[in-house]
Amino acid sequence: MFERLGRFVVYERWWVIVAWLAAAAASVAFAPSLETTSDQANFLPGSYESIRATEIAQGAFGESDGATATIVVKRSDGGELTAADQDTVSRLAEAVTNAGIAKVTGAVTAPQAVSPNRLVQLVTVGLGDNPQDPTLTAAIKDIRTASDPVLANTGLERLVTGDIAMYADNEDAFNDALVIVGAATLILIVLLLLIIYRSPLAAILPLIIVGIVTVVSTGLIATMADVFGMDADPSIEIILTIVLYGVGTDYILFLLFRFRERLRAGDQTKPALVTSVHRVGEVIASAAGAIVIAFLALLLAVFGAFRSLGPALAIAVVVMGLAAVTLVPAIVSLFGTAVFWPSKSWKRTPKGTTFQRLGRFTGRRPAVVALVSGGLMVALAAGSLFMKTDYDQNAQLPGGTESAEGYEALQAGFPAGALAPTQVILQADGDAGIDPGSLAGVADRLRAVPGVGSIMPGPDGSPATLSDDASVARFDLLLAGSPYSNEALALAGGELRDVAHAAAPPGTRAYVGGLSSVFADIKDANDRDLRVIFPVAGLLIAVILALLLRSLVAPLYLIVAVVLGFFSTLGATVIVFQGIADRPGLSFSLPIILYLFVVAIGTDYNILMIARLREEARLGNDPRTAADLAVEHAGPSVGAAGLILAGTFASMLLAGVSFLMEMGFSVSVGILIAAFVMAMFLVPSVTALIGRRAWWPGHGDDARPTTADLDRAPDEAVLADRP
């Protein structure tokens, strides 16, 4: 099939190129825009308690998950706020309300907004119902500008904080980081490809291909999201770009390395391209299939951000795989050997290369290579046993900003949880309503829970806010610690819920909501998804490998190698960030990121190497010689692809943002392990040790002629196929 495809795309190249350009133009003209949301609660099913609590509060009090900012006011000398100071803060709230600032719905303060020690007073500013509105960052700047004249010469100072303010303060840092990472990525890809091929055309080819594929796949993804009403996380665009550059560069390298190999063997340009598509097409299709299976396994997730990410990335990989075996050879056929210009290295086979020496050593000492490579991965994997998960997203942001200082100042007078109160919602089962006299007892039991700092009084000074029909009561709890911390999540999702449920008066039900509760449910969903997705994806990838290799043995140790690669990557990250950098834990989203980029994309390298091992065996080589030749011939493409992809992620270390640095380090190390330890050494050495049994029960290593072999040396090929 791939031989016929190769002949078509090489000899009918203009039809192929025009078809791709037409598809890109249609995507730009007709596809809808891709809508995203960063509200993590939107990705949780309504069955989770935090979501149920939010829905009840919205129905009873007309509240939504609106955006707010908090103005923290304190004396410049650190003293207590006087009555005159509190009057000034009230005027500040009025000034912000009447300043005509876009998106500001009002600013309020109250006596209960003054801390018990009178060191801090809070002003809450409403910013509308859409926390994802990108114009809110401008509102934060206007709020600060409007506040300054009121506080001038009063001895008071203000600090605007909250989630929106933190985003506004760090927007420049993230924008600068993305510019740095994007520029470094493009420069690195071009530079490494220039070093590998010594050709400017070969260096920019991946950029052209990925650009076209990005336009087509983004249009298809946006259409899918529009038709099925799916929400998408804002990170999908960044992840999509990295995935396409990753797999796209890999597949183009696989094809160009084989094309150069066929030219060196004496093939003419077009037959060499046809043979390259024939030989590498099955590898690319299988590799893309494995990645698509891994991504589609995310459909099993209950967390919507993962579930929407899976099919989107699967579409992108399918489009990229199709482009690799159609658009790439079509474009290369236009230039022929000029694709390597001005280098002449494609004309001669290098002698005594590093990969030849590594191949010979692997073939001669497979047990030593397997022991060293496998032992290194096991040693690194041990670090994963000490992994801790961190859900504190604010800790991942740069410090020294006004919002960060405001959050610290707030804690001088209020519990840290004041920035995001945890809500306990009581709902009456029937029409009788809630007895106001029972609320004090519930409040006492909630206040006694370790980790609860205080309970904010209601408008009339009561311990809770009661709805107009008395069917719902809301307790606003301020946790003693950060609402994003692991301790807060464990409290909101554990003991606090238990106590709230038990304290609910007869005829009522209790639900715990608020940010800490939402993240507690996200943690639960995340843990569940990882337990389900990983085994299912591993099984399905094993099926892909079994179909490709017609074997049951080889897929087993390939999957074991991939799993070991995942845990060794995780372990290395734990050692560096939790050990050396003394971080409290790794970001909760890191395991799924490693799954996407290390497990899924790293499988490409295994497939390329095992396919080359089978190819060398089919040419009549014994298992150790096959390992020798596979490392010599497939090693350069695996190494180049791994180095480029790892370098792409390593550029994130320049970002200066903790999460991006953590992601960049872990994925780059994982890709290096997958390419240079697992695929290049562990897989060929284990295959050499197992021998022909690796292909059981099929006969994948049986010597057989290929079209290229028959064209090149028919007599030798036929003799090689005889028993």
Automatic annotation (TrEMBL):
Keyword annotations: Cell membrane, Membrane, Transmembrane, Transmembrane helix
UniProt domain SSD: residue ranges: 203-334
Membrane topology: Multi-pass membrane protein
Residue span of region Disordered: 701-723
Spans through the membrane: 14-34, 177-197, 204-224, 236-259, 280-306, 312-341, 367-387, 532-549, 556-580, 592-613, 634-657, 663-683
Any one Gene Ontology cellular component term annotated for this protein: plasma membrane
InterPro entries referenced in this protein's UniProt entry, alphabetically: MMPL_dom, Mycobact_MmpL, SSD
SUPFAM superfamilies attached to this UniProt entry: Multidrug efflux transporter AcrB transmembrane domain
Cellular compartment(s): Cell membrane
Xref: Pfam families: MMPL
PANTHER family: MEMBRANE PROTEIN MJ1562-RELATED (PTHR33406), MEMBRANE PROTEIN YDGH-RELATED (PTHR33406:SF6)
Protein family membership: Belongs to the resistance-nodulation-cell division (RND) (TC 2.A.6) family. MmpL subfamily.
Protein name: Putative drug exporter of the RND superfamily
Protein species of origin: Asanoa ishikariensis
